[in-house]
Amino acid sequence: MAIRVNLDVMLAKRKMSVSELAEAIGITPVNVSVLKNGRAKAIRFSTLDAICEALHCQPGEVLEWVDGEDE
After folding, report:
1. What's residue 69's pLDDT?
2. Over the stretch 16-56, which tens digit does the pLDDT of each residue have?
3. CA 35 to chain centre
4. What is the DSSP string of 23-63?
5. CA–CA separation, 20 vs 25, rounded Å?
6. Nearest to 11 by CA among 46, 65, 56
7. What's the distance, CA 62 to chain centroid?
């Protein structure tokens, strides 16, 4: 997959835990961990919107396209 998820970086920059983000966006900590670890196959725009609102960031700070990266 050529999409890299930088959620762990954004959480560290904001000094926020997985649990805190999960509570702020209304999904389970397990689902946040799946996103954070790059194991998700898809993300809803509403979830991405909530993440960006909670972390005060742009979608491009959370998701990054990387040329040639394999699964």
Report:
1. 57
2. 999 999 999 999 999 999 999 989 999 999 999 999 999 99
3. 5
4. HHHTS-HHHHHHHHTT--S---HHHHHHHHHHHT--HHHHE
5. 9
6. 56
7. 5
- Distances, alpha carbon 71 to alpha carbons 2, 19, 34, 67, in Å: 8, 27, 15, 12
Q: How far is 70 from 67, CA to CA, in rounded Å?
A: 9
pLDDT at 68: 76
DSSP letter (8 states) at residue 20: H
> Which pLDDT value is given to residue 30?
97
11: alpha, beta or left? (left if phi > 0; alpha if psi -120 to 50): alpha
How confident is the model at residue 19, as a pLDDT? 97
d(CA 4, CA 12): 16
Q: Which residue has the tokens 């909670």?
A: 54
